[in-house]
Amino acid sequence: MSTQQNDALPTIDLVRVGAGAARDGDATCPSSLRWKTRPMSRAVGRFPKEQLDDFVLRPVMAALDRVEFGGEVPDEAFSIIQGDGGPVHPGVNRFAEHAVQVYLTAMPSLGPVPLRPVRELWVAQRVLPSVVWELYAWGRRYESVDGGLREFRFLRLGPARERSPAEVAIAAYAAAFGTPAEFPDPWSEPFRPFGRTGAERVRVLEVGLVDGSVKPLLDCTAKEVEEYFAERGRARVVDIARGEDLVPGFGCGDCKRVAVCRGPVRMPGLLGVESGQGALRTVSVSGLRYYRKCPAQAYLRTVHLPRAYEYSAEAELGHAVHGWLETAHQGQGNACSPDTMPPVTVPVADAAWSAGKWRVTGEFANVGARMLAYHVEICPFRDAPEIDSVRVEPQLTFFDTVARAVVVAKPDLIYRERGQWVWRELKTTQKARWYYTDPLEGFPQLALAVAVLAAGGLGPGGAGRVELEILRPSGAEIVVIDPTEEERVQTARRVLREWAAPWRSDHVFEARPGRNCRGCPVSVWCPSYPGPDPDEKEDETSAASRTATEG
Ligand code: SF4
Ligand code: SF4
Ligand SMILES: [Zn+2]
């Protein structure tokens, strides 16, 4: 791809591919990526913005710009940018302040050649008779005084790590062969590059904003960049620009096509709440649980602030049991048997088994092995008649157009039995009993399951049943809920409404300090964190809410 200046660009079509579009991830929707590469196509159906600005890197970049281009000291820069733009959550502000300090401390030591910051993006632009192609990367840019060396830095909220080769290739290509250009305004216009095109040498690296870690990704000549891009970037760029598959999920909420796309299943009224003229949001049942614990915690999770490790040994065990059964049930209807389960090991110190990324050892390994042994008795595929459409831990995406919410759910298992849909959720516990009177009240994901089945949200087939499988080291239990029973459906809808209504009407996500702060994985960013309070007593209500998050 050669680059050239443009004064009067033909704008029959404009294809703009940012390095971020080449990020690895099964959950990324190819069709959505393709639409993003077409800045001239407007979003279908516009939704208002959230009151809080949820783009965490915006204040970070704004403060760094003031320091690097305006010569301000970081504290001053940060207090000035706090008055700019829309309101920012206090937790995001705290993170952004930390990130700016960490970035500025981490970076000056890199390399013997002094670099100066570059304000403009580097854009590799190719103008054809009917289309303009543009490659660029979003991050921070530096160059040597003579312009012969360009350095591009990706930013990551967490610690620095690898990026996909295609992502690195696009960033390197834009640095090696691009021309400086300001952000087009409006975005639907082509870039207007000006100044020096290309550099002889390019470095690409990533900076982790949580800890100042630095990951070098590429350091080579422009010639080598050309080869690297030809091998790892070019085909990916074409794929991105042509992507057609629909992969609905957490990305739908930011997608230009959500108002007309057939990917998310339309279920107006699913959450039982109205948005008014609110912004389009995305939520899962876990998100609603976090919200009920503390709105600020839910928000800071949603905007992906770095989190402390949050899994207790019990939670790790629950994940391991889930993981084991996820693999076991991939066999499309094959029933589990005792010889496919991990053994109970003596001596207990030798006990260990893993499922996916989860590993359990010692007593926890044996507790999990006992739970899994009891699963065999109630495996959904044991003596099951006419099973089809088995999906293990599928990601289901619904669009509640009344609540203006994309609802993402991950049932443990769904399948059809004699043409009727079954939705099964699994919980593990070492407690002898749960603290709830109605499973729909205790587990809102069951309420979601009932509401979805009752409305035919899983596709062709009748509403069969919703099941809660409870595994204990001392036995197994199945709770069955009939989604055709009117009272169950009404209760499910009421439960969903009670969980969703406060979340939907909230626009500020205030901190609610209390017992939940102790296990809060984002407490380091929370200005309201009161510190640990070991003397606080738990009552039954709080025990119930914690129990409901197990497994
Ligand atoms: S709405 Fe969802 S499924 Fe449809 S194109 Fe967008 S991200 Fe993909
Ligand atoms: S530390 Fe406490 S108040 Fe702050 S976000 Fe976490 S749970 Fe909420
Ligand atoms: Zn099974």
From TrEMBL:
Biological source species: Actinophytocola gossypii
**Database matches in InterPro entries:** PDDEXK_AddAB-type (IPR038726)
The answer to whether the entry has keyword Hydrolase is yes
Q: Any idea which UniProt keywords this protein has?
A: ATP-binding, DNA damage, DNA repair, Helicase, Hydrolase, Nucleotide-binding
Q: Does the keyword Hydrolase apply?
A: yes
Name used for this protein in its record: PD-(D/E)XK nuclease family protein
What single Pfam family name could you report for this chain, choosing any that match? PDDEXK_1
Region entry Disordered, spans: 528-551
Q: Where is the PD-(D/E)XK endonuclease-like domain?
A: 282-527
Source species, domain of life = Bacteria
Biased segments, Polar residues type: 542-551
